[in-house]
Write a structure and sequence with these properties.
Layout lengths: L2 E3 L2 E5 L5 E6 L1 H5 L11 E5 L6 E6 L5 E5 L7 E6 L3 E7 L7 H13 L4 E6 L13 H6 L3 E3 L8 H8 L3 E5 L6 H8 L10 E2 L4 E2 L7 E4 L5 E4 L13 H4 L27 H8 L4 H17 L4
Parallel strand pairs: 3-5, 8-9, 8-11, 9-10, 11-15
Antiparallel strand pairs: 1-2, 2-3, 4-5, 6-7, 12-13, 14-15
Helix pairs in contact: 2-8
């Protein structure tokens, strides 16, 4: 499914043709999966009028989910069958925010979807654009330094998107739409402006839309997100969302160690020896405090 609103969805079949489709009544009113962008479906064509309907939703191989809004219980699936999350930040204008980047990476980790980081607008940075992101490279995240203005890094990023379903995310104004337009001119996505007064981008994307790439694969262009603290991550699972922690967690004395003040915590020892970046550990601590308030009994 490429996009959908008001009960009418846009689907792309195996030949590349796109169709407006609707849900069969049993899917609309039954207990089946709720349809989301990225779902693979089975289509049926009405022999009388040639219209298409969704007969079934294929089981998902992955998903991106968050807590239901408004304090409700449960979760809301926002995208399905995602192969990777591509988090885009700008080297400057707007200024990168490491705490927000960590939140996006936790979202991907909690959903067990690999993530990579794009540092866009590299031409605006003084010095080594990758240096402020060294801790992420050490943690195993692939880094891409790109510039629409100069074209640097676009070929490598293009190859990373090829043949995969990629969910692009990140704060507003970092140039996600510009990157896609430059690599794939036919997409013609709207491009927003940067507000100089608040150094934050104005939102230009109003809903998740999946675009077929001309040489294979798909990208999901998602709205710029300002707040990502509501995603479905429990305190017990947070440590495993930091990949550099994973080798040390089994060495902690306690199986339920939260890596705070417990004795013989291997994660804290790794921070002290430099095996884990202290700034990443401090980010973990801040997120743990927030999550503990949201999940008081977990």
């Amino acid at each position: 499914m490429l996009r959908g609103t008001g009960g009418v969805w846009r689907a792309r079949d195996a030949s590349g043709a796109e169709h407006d489709v609707s849900l069969r009544g049993r899917l609309k009113h039954g207990e089946s999966l709720k349809l989301v962008v990225g779902d693979e479906v089975e289509l049926e064509r009405d022999a009388r009028d040639g219209t298409y309907a969704i007969a079934d939703i294929v089981p998902r191989r992955s998903r991106l989910a968050r807590r239901a809004p408004g304090g409700a219980h449960g979760e809301r699936i926002v995208a399905a069958n995602v192969d990777q999350v591509v988090v885009v930040f700008a080297a400057a204008h707007p200024t990168p925010n490491a705490r927000m980047l960590d939140r996006f990476l936790v979202i991907a980790g909690a959903n067990e979807v690999p993530a990579r980081i794009v540092i866009n607008k590299a031409d605006l940075a003084a010095g080594d654009v990758r240096a402020p992101f060294a801790a992420y490279a050490a943690a195993g995240y692939p880094l891409h330094a790109t510039s629409v203005a100069t074209g640097d890094g676009l070929d490598v990023l293009h190859d990373a998107l090829h043949g995969r379903v990629s969910a692009l995310t990140g704060p507003s104004g970092v140039g996600k739409s510009s990157l896609l337009n430059t690599m794939y001119p036919g997409l013609s996505l709207r491009v927003g402006e940067i507000s100089s007064s608040v150094d934050k981008g104005r939102h230009t994307t109003v809903g998740t839309t999946m675009h077929a790439l001309p040489d294979g694969g798909y990208v999901m262009d998602t709205p710029g997100l300002r707040e990502v603290g509501v995603w479905n991550v429990s305190p017990a699972a947070l440590g495993s969302c930091f990949p550099e922690f994973r080798a040390f967690i089994p060495r902690c004395r306690f199986g339920d160690c939260r890596h705070h003040d417990e004795p013989d915590c291997a994660v804290r020892e790794a921070v002290d020896t430099g095996a884990v970046a202290r700034e990443r550990y401090e980010s973990y601590r801040r997120l743990m405090t927030e999550l503990a308030a949201s999940f008081p009994n977990r």
